[in-house]
Design goal:
With 216 residues, the chain is of the alpha/beta class. The protein has 10 helices and 5 strands, in the order H-H-E-H-E-H-E-H-H-H-H-H-E-E-H. It has one domain: Beta-carbonic Anhydrase, Chain A (3-Layer(aba) Sandwich). Helix 5 crosses helix 6 and helix 8 packs antiparallel against helix 10.
């Protein structure tokens, strides 16, 4: 007897549909992994990475955690980045947050959930860094959305500052970093204008992106 038989039934139908649409797909997929993109996103179940950008299995390497944080002591995230950059040779790393993120909301409201509160401290650090701008936003939803945007850009800079990415740029590897944000209520992505291709342009692009947000 299988547990969760409905999910196994769904899997059978999905695999059958994929194979009918593209015969030999799974055999080809099993023989290689060659994605151009690493997606670093939120673990939120409403933000399915592949589906959002219309890519098939094998086309998007994915790391997800609560509130899409990139932390320099997180060996899980760093290992994913290293494998993606040095082994898979991805050309793009995309940090993607989303409006209505529970981690951001919890941080702003100082909610207490236990162990995860330590992880959410990283969002509070971003909030503190940009508190002068955020405190000038009266509308709570607008403030929440602005913090979400700032958080994504800060995490992209954390990626840029890893030794993995710095070394890749130093050896001339083609690698671009991007900051995106996703809106749950319409399914649309938005680019936060943080496309970084070299170590030298990282800080100027970061400062310009932050200035553009905080000028609003």
């Amino acid at each position: 007897m299988k547990f969760l038989p409905n999910l196994f039934a769904n899997n059978v139908q999905w695999a059958k549909h994929v194979e009918e649409q593209e015969p030999g797909f799974f055999k080809s997929l099993s023989e290689q992994q060659n994605p151009d993109y690493l997606w670093i996103g939120c673990a939120d179940s409403r933000v399915p990475a592949n589906e959002i950008v219309g890519l098939k299995p094998g086309e998007l390497f994915v790391h997800r955690n609560v509130a899409n944080c990139v932390v320099h002591t997180d060996l899980n995230c760093l290992s994913v980045i290293q494998y993606a950059v040095e082994v898979l040779k991805v050309k793009h790393i995309i940090v993607t947050g989303h409006y209505g993120c529970g981690g951001v909301i919890s941080s702003m409201n100082n909610a207490k959930f236990g162990l995860v509160d330590n992880w959410l401290r990283h969002i509070k650090d971003v909030q503190h860094k940009h508190h002068l701008h955020l405190n000038n936003i009266a509308d709570p939803i607008a403030k929440q959305e602005r913090l979400t945007e700032l958080h994504v850009i800060e995490q992209t800079m954390n990626v840029a500052n890893t030794s993995i990415v710095q070394d890749a740029w130093e050896r001339g590897q083609d690698l671009q970093l991007h900051s995106w944000i996703y809106r749950l209520d319409d399914g649309m992505l938005r680019d936060l204008d943080t496309c970084i291709s070299t170590a030298e342009e990282a800080t100027p692009i970061y400062l310009a992106a932050i200035a553009k947000l905080t000028a609003k």
